[in-house]
Amino acid sequence: MKAFPEVVQTAWANREGPIVLATVDADGFPNAIYAGSVGEFGDDALVVADNYFHKTRANILAGSKGALLFITKERISYQVKGIFTYHTAGPVFEAMKQWNPAKHPGHAAAALKVERIYGGAAQLL
Q1: I want to staple 8 with a disulfide (CB 3.0 to 4.6 A). Which of 4, 23, 104, 109 is the partner?
Q2: What's this model's pTM, rounded to 2 decimal places?
Q3: Average of pLDDT values for 63-85?
Q4: What is the residue range of 28's domain?
Q5: Residue 1: pLDDT above 50?
């Protein structure tokens, strides 16, 4: 697996607001949602808590690739693209339970394994 470049690690630590999570359904139609319960797992995955997924869950379980978009306080956007894995138990799930707010259900953890990263229009990985 590929690790996040240092510039992306710094940007992730300095992000602002919710992220945008995009998946694709079996017919090729995109679905995008805002998500606020996000974290990292290792140096090659970003994790989104499945608190209220519906279409997103179905897309991930069907094997959707996806993208996660975030913006820094300096208004620089970053996009991480890759393949999702869905965890209802195990290390990724347990890690998510540590940072997901108790007021949310945390049904599962969707981990996006990095394949490509963009900072603005520039491909960083």
Answers
A1: 4
A2: 0.91
A3: 95
A4: 6-123
A5: no
What H or E segment, with its residue span, contains residue 49?
A: strand 45-50
For the beta carbon of residue 61, count every other beta carbon within 10 angstroms.
13
Helix (H, G, I), strand (E, B) or coil at 37: coil
24 part of a folded domain: yes
**Does 104 fall in a domain?**
yes
Asked if residue 16 lies in contact with residue 72, where contact means CB atoms within 8 angstroms, the answer is: yes
Asked if residue 108 lies in contact with residue 87, where contact means CB atoms within 8 angstroms, the answer is yes
Q: Is residue 1 part of a domain?
A: no
Does a structural domain hold residue 100? Answer: yes
What is the b/e burial string over 111-123, where b = at least 16 CB atoms within 10 angstroms of the residue's CB? Answer: bbbbeebbbeeee
> Residue 93 sits in a domain of what CATH number?
2.30.110.10
Percent of the chain at pLDDT > 90 equals: 89
Q: For 29-50, what is each residue's pLDDT tens digit?
A: 999 999 999 999 988 899 999 9
Query: How many domains are there within the chain?
Result: 1
